[in-house]
Design brief:
By secondary structure, the chain is α/β, with parallel strands linked by helices. Helices cover about 50% and strands about 15% of the residues. It contains 11 helices and 5 strands. Strand 4, helix 4 and strand 5 form a beta-alpha-beta unit.
Amino acid sequence: MIRVVIADDQTLVRTGFRLILDLESDIEVVGEAADGAECVRRVGQEQPDVVLMDVRMPVLDGIEATRRLTEAGSRARVLVLTTFDLDEYVFEALRAGAAGFLLKDAPREQLVSAIRQAVDGDALLAPSVTRRLIERFARTGGSSAALAPFETLSVREREVLALVARGWTNGEVAAALFLGDATVKTHIARMLAKLGARDRIQAIVMAYESGFLRPGADNG
């Protein structure tokens, strides 16, 4: 079972998500929270696999709550809930450790798919959204120290990173590079280990902020 905590200050939103997820045989909502501080407590108590995290909440906002969970070493994957897909708060949440984000009005099947993908470690941002978010908010032209970890990547790992940065799924990367899905997962795991990144989202942010990848460039 995939264990989920829902954090949103609107009761109707939490209820709506719970009703959707309760229909899935492999997903269980194990807790709800009306603010960020309560969410951090609930995650500590329930040890969920995924957190649906609203950005704007009282007491403690979703960004800070995500940062605290990351710093505490929580294994929970945070999916940020937002109203606008080009919200600067979303990017800040990704930098704080979120694994991806969802629009609050996303279709039911997209919500369920995103939760499963979060657990599997696959792509969580649509390619167009990935590019717009990163290109709008990432700082480029980082220091040589920031670039150093990327120099340890093999040619194939660099190719995989460039495609992952487009928001491609493991299957899409495998098809483009004529590799098996398992091989792609291995390359991603090695890439993350070399970069010291929690997940593919953090690797993308690091790549753009260091200047290894550049907004507007082909990068492939």
